[in-house]
Amino acid sequence: GQTVVALTRRGKYLLASLSSGETLLMHLGMSGSFRVVREGRTLRGPRARDSHDHVVFHMSSGRSVVFNDPRRFGVMDLIRPGQLQHHPVLSALGPEPLSDDFDAAGLARACAGKRTSLKAALLDQRAVAGLGNIYASEALHVARLSPRRRASILATPGGAPREAAHRLTEAIKHVLLKAIARQARGRYGDERFLVYDREDELCSRKGCAGTIRRGAQGGRSTFSCPVCQR
Questions:
Q1: Are residues 52 and 114 both part of a single domain?
Q2: Which of 51, 171, 226, 227 sits between 20 and 30 A of 74, alpha carbons compared?
Q3: How does pLDDT run across 170-206, given as a tens digit for each residue?
Q4: Secondary structure of 117-147 in the HEC alphabet?
Q5: Mind listing the pLDDT tens digit for each residue in 65-86?
Q6: 0.85 exceeded by the pTM?
Q7: Distances (CA, A) of 197 to 144, 175, 214, 221, 223
Q8: What are 130-154's pLDDT values in tens digits?
Q9: Is residue 36 part of a domain?
Q10: What is the mean pLDDT of residues 3-31?
Q11: Which region holds residue 78: left if phi is over 0, alpha if psi is between -120 and 50, else beta?
Q12: 104-117 burial, b for 16+ CB within 10 Å, e for fewer?
């Protein structure tokens, strides 16, 4: 058996470093989750093992860690020593949004000349790693930018960042730090979003009389205020 010596993250991927030098790469997909089964308990009963339990790790403590994924979008891959940085899903990732490598200049370069929407650009993991649908909508609201505007508005013809790129970069950092702080206080799951999942409610921005609208972009729900997001 192997020992997990470190557990880290890159974008939306979990990376378990093993004592063999290998790395287990994991992605939860849309519905994946882990649960721990205590020693002496079976995988039957209220949390019975079913067709959605795809991987079971048997630990030396007697416990088991079960990976469950009803929608089957999850991924696991065992990577050989020295090959992690060359793995195709990791090598293509953009900078981490809370790292010093993520700034307005880099975001502008990633979006320069693109005809796609701002929302789609933010979900492109090559532009910024790990940003998902909820916080892309939230960041665009904080930055007062419409999710449907072209991504190219972030850059000048020469590729330099416009003022909107600075606003959006800071907004992304702001909403992520706020979410992390909330979860650290044990309040995960009761977060009150600014626009996400608030269709037909009044905009929360002070002085704005807009109503949150819901639309679809790339098969994903987008929430925004048509009044203060331009």
A1: no
A2: 171
A3: 999 999 999 999 887 766 666 789 999 999 999 999 9
A4: EHHHHHHCCCCCCCCCHHHHHHHHHHCCCCC
A5: 999 999 999 999 999 999 999 9
A6: yes
A7: 18, 16, 8, 9, 7
A8: 999 999 999 999 999 999 999 999 9
A9: yes
A10: 97
A11: beta
A12: bebbbbbbbebeeb
- Orientation of helix 163-184 relative to helix 133-142, angle to 10°: 120
In a domain, 203, yes or no: no
Nearest-angstrom CA–CA distance, 98 and 103: 9
Tokens coding 213: 């609208």
**Six-digit token string for 107:** 């975001």
Q: Dig out the tokens for 193 from the structure.
A: 């979003």
Q: Say how many domains are in the chain.
A: 2
What is the C-alpha separation between 114 and 169, in angstroms, rounded?
17
Domain with 189, as residue range(s), is 104-193
What are the tokens at 175?
């909403």
Query: Are 44 and 87 members of one domain?
Result: yes
80 plus 147 within the same structural domain: no
Q: Is residue 230 part of a domain?
A: no
